[in-house]
Amino acid sequence: MRGISIKLFFFLVLLGLDYSNSYGQNESLLAEVRLALKAGSAKELSQYFHDNVEVNIKDESGNYSRIHAEIYLKEFFKNIEPISFEYVLQRSTDNGLKYAIGNYTYSEGKYLVLIRAKIINGKEKIYIIDFSED
């Protein structure tokens, strides 16, 4: 009986470590993305993109390679420099999808930013980023 209790204890400890590790990865991804958006750094932001990412800015939408998305966003950040970026909502689904909504503030207004991420090859990657004028 004692052997079963010890095995159960270690199983629960390992399960807790796995959960906290995946939770930490999510928090880390969103924290790093927040910093990149706040700084207007397309290079930093693109590190978290999937190989192919959908980028939507206002009414323009397209699927881009990570490098082309970086170039596109670099131009966006150059023309619309951020003052701040803060999340208003962060959620995850039971099937491992994550999303966050935030406010990208610039001198003339705000964009509402929707970020969607999922685990691909063991790493959380952004596969959609959408900027809608608020």
Describe it.
19% of the residues are buried. The chain is globular, with a radius of gyration of 18 Å. It is built from three helices and six strands. A hairpin with a 5-residue loop joins strand 3 and strand 4. The termini are far apart. With 134 residues, it is α+β, with helices and mostly antiparallel strands.
Short characterization:
The chain is built from 3 helices and 6 strands. The protein is α+β, with helices and mostly antiparallel strands and 134 residues long.
Key attributes of the depicted protein:
globular, alpha+beta, 134 residues
Structural shape: globular
Proportion of residues in extended strands: 35-45%
The main β sheet shows up as: 6 strands, mixed
Largest sheet strand order: 2-1-6-5-4-3
- Gyration radius, to the nearest Å? 18 Å
Q: How confident overall, as mean pLDDT?
A: 85
Find the structural class using helix and strand composition.
alpha+beta
**How many separate helices?**
3
Extended strand count: 6
Order of helices and strands: HHEEHEEEE
Query: Which residue ranges are poorly predicted, with pLDDT under 50 across at least 5 consecutive positions?
Result: 5-26
Query: What percent of the residues sit in helical stretches (DSSP H or I)?
Result: 40-55%
How far from one another are the termini? 61 Å
Protein name: DUF4783 domain-containing protein
Organism: Marivirga arenosa
InterPro entries: DUF4783
Give the SSE map.
Blueprint: H1 2-39, H2 42-46, E1 49-57, E2 60-65, H3 66-79, E3 82-92, E4 98-106, E5 109-120, E6 123-133
Parallel strand pairs: 1-6
Antiparallel strand pairs: 1-2, 3-4, 4-5, 5-6
Pfam families: DUF4783
Protein name: DUF4783 domain-containing protein
Organism: Marivirga arenosa
